[in-house]
Amino acid sequence: MFGSKKNEPTVKKSNGLSSAPSHALNSLVQGTEVRGSVTSESDIRIDGKLIGDLQCATKLIIGPTGSIEGDVQCENALIEGAFNGTLKVRSTLHIKENANIEGDIKTDKLIVDQGAVFNVTCNMSTGSISSFNKKDKKIVEKASVG
Fold it and tell me: What domain count does the chain have?
């Protein structure tokens, strides 16, 4: 009875690094500015401003009021706001009609809606993109849509 630990609940301590559920969404809201490096194992939506690098294992969404200045790597991206920097998308990059994109892009698939400002150096490759660095900047296509 007393002193017995048989029926006590087990408490498991977490190191804070649990894997994120697939439906998780991180969000940087409008009016918020972050400077530095961000890493996300789940989807991330930017409606504020990020100045720095972003590593996202899944999908990046830059909302209509969002902006990123820096280097970004992700699986898929949907951009409605502003981006300036280097963007590596392993699968599909979708640029919406109100987006303003400048910099260097490397992606497998590209969708650019009519009306988007798309002033980039774009390198498209078939298959998986494994790495992207400053030495990989081969000018394949310069495009301006609008």
Answer: 1
